[in-house]
Design goal:
- The structure holds two protein chains of two kinds.
- By secondary structure, chain A is an all-alpha fold.
- Among the domains of chain A are: about 30-100, Cytochrome c-like domain (Cytochrome Bc1 Complex, Chain D, domain 2, Orthogonal Bundle), CATH 1.10.760; about 115-205, Orthogonal Bundle (Cytochrome Bc1 Complex, Chain D, domain 2).
- Helix content of chain A is about 45%, strand content about 0%.
- Chain A has helices at about 1-20, 30, 35-40, 60-70, 80-85, 90-100, 115-125, 140, 160-175, 185-190, 195-205.
- In chain A, α4 crosses α5 and α7 packs across α11 (about 195-205).
- Chain A starts with a helix and ends in a 32-residue tail after the last helix.
- In chain B, the strands form three sheets. A three-stranded antiparallel sheet of chain B has the order 1-2-3, with no helix packed on it. Chain B has a two-stranded antiparallel sheet with strand order 4-5.
- Chain B has helices at about 5-25, 40-45, 45-60, 60-65, 105-115, 130, 135-150, 170-180, 195-205, 210, 255-265, 275-280, 290-300, 320-330, 335, 355-360, 365-370, 395-410, 420-425; strands at about 80, 85-90, 160, 230, 240, 265, 270.
- Chain B folds into three domains: about 5-180; about 195-300, Cytochrome Bc1 Complex, Chain D, domain 2, CATH 1.10.760; about 320-425, Orthogonal Bundle (Cytochrome Bc1 Complex, Chain D, domain 2), CATH 1.10.760.
- In chain B, a hairpin with a 2-residue loop joins β6 and β7 (about 270).
- Chain B is built from 19 helices and seven strands.
- Classes of the chains: A mainly alpha, B mainly alpha.
- Chains A and B meet through α2, α3, α5 and α6 of A and α12 and α15 of B.
Amino acid sequence: MRRRRSLVTIVLGTLALGAQAVPPFEDSIAQRVLACTGCHGPQGRAAPDGYYPRIAGKPPVYLYNQLLNFRDGRRRYGLMTGLLAPLDDAYLREIANHFSALDVAYPPPQPPKEGAAVIERGRLLVVQGDPARRIPACVQCHGDAMMGVAPSIPGLLGLPRDYLNAQLGAWRTGTRRAQAPDCMHEVAKALTPEDISAVSAWLAAQPAFGKPAPTLPRPLPLDCGGVTTPATGGSK
Amino acid sequence: MTARRIVALLLGALFVVAAIIVALNVRDEGQGVDQPVPDSIATRTPADLIARGEYLTRAGDCIGCHTARGGVPYAGGRGIETPFGTVYAPNLTPDPQTGLGNWSASDFWRALHNGRSRDGRLLYPVFPYPNYTRVVRADSDAMYAYLRSLPPTVQPSPAHALDFPFNLQASLAVWRAIYFQPGVHVADPAKPAEWNRGAYLVEGLGHCNACHSSRNALGAPVGPLDLAGGLIPVQNWYAPSLTAVDESSVAHWDVRDVVALLKTGVSTRGAVLGPMSEVVLNSTQYLSDADLVAMTTYLKALPVVRSAPEAAPAPAGRTDAQARGARLYETHCAACHGEAGEGVAGAYPALAGSRAVTMTSSANLVHVVLQGGFPPATAGNPRPYGMPPFATVLSDAEVADLLTYVRGAWGNRGAPVSTLDVNRFRSDVRP
């Protein structure tokens, strides 16, 4: 017992030391973008508060588009806009590619707090949509594995439920926008708050692993601005 | 004296005052208007005139105000917030209905030189015509030619949202009668040509004193062209004095460092952040080395003063605030700025011995810690190193402790920062 405690002490001590040790300066893109990882977590693996999303491993053009959207006012968050205002497209693309290339393990999913009926409603909306209300299934664009599609469609797993709720709400009200045609705004407008809650509850409970799919098996159901059309084998 | 007579006298006096105000507002209007033939410029413009106009338009940073965030360059629509309300910068592209399509070169020159629109309306001096009035007609015509060469964009300008009485042309006429005088750049034969070119750019198109001077309650620079520093209204960044040796005087700088800072956004003496970052991004990075050297020559020749008396050396030992600040520094800052505030050359500015750290106003320090920032991505520094924002990490009291420590550490002699000092700028961080 004593031995185990001393082992724990050593491990914790090493961790604490590791946290305090100052990494040596190096001329690298990781060093240059420490301004990002302050909020988005080391290597962009997401912050513990659930508000700042993971950026590691997301599709590169998706990340690039978000950087442009923040800088150019289509997406609003003062700190992001202020940081990006003096940066040009080439550097934003390099930053996006850097975080996209990071391969960091995902945290385990959050256990759902909602009842089975809500979870099932969320699952159905994600995998089937609601044709009667002209709501496409999430998987139609975000991939059957919901890990996104290279190079510009983001994954939906590995994100905290609060973040999903906030983003879907912002798409719905138009405070988050994309380049025209703004397909996510159209989809989110068709969702009710209960739909959003159900979808986020189900998505946040799924384990995330793997990378964005290289292609979509079908054409996109809607036209989306800024989306580099994924290879489909189809007509799109 | 009968009552009628008194009324007549008062009316007469009022008329005289009004006549004086009108006369002051249109003085010097004829000058220069008839010089070139206006419309010939629009139709047969040599490419080098357009290129020269583009260069001068950049020197004036016109794009900075006349472009909405993410909008078409020069198509206007950006709201400039002032203590008197919001003024929307208009569309400068050659669209006939919503831009300058129907303007002649003389109309354009009158706007620059006299601050009047094509239809005769008085323009608000947030458009820095008190500076642009120094621009010579040939340069105005080149800028006009460049703007005419842009693709016309249909984009109506939103109406200004100014408070009463600032929304009235009559109020503006009174302001102009008191504070605005059309001028020309007069070369000083006693000074070298380089200094004169610098003066023309700094006082004219560069409109440096629009930020680097304090303004009175009516928004007029307190000492015209004094460059003695001032808190930029609404943005609440402090544009430091360019004359004070304890702020941003460059009298003792190597010319190359000043040129590097304006050209690339970084130099061995530090980096630009905040509103100056935009200026370098949109304007000074495009200026020729010769013009940057000229501006530096002018800035180095400014009178050298102190803005605050030199502080006594700090007593040995740390105050409680400094001790708390030192721990925060160790956790959040030392990895980049160094254990002794020495920074990393080319990446992270040194904090020890930095005037930006120790100068009286702590506004910029608070903004940088709360909001973080990148110097501008320029051709000379395309991949700048960034500073993370701490608005969501540190409380007002913690930022105050941290800055109190940094301002007093490693030989720095800056005054402590209070929680209130931090709090008054916290609301500038708009998530």
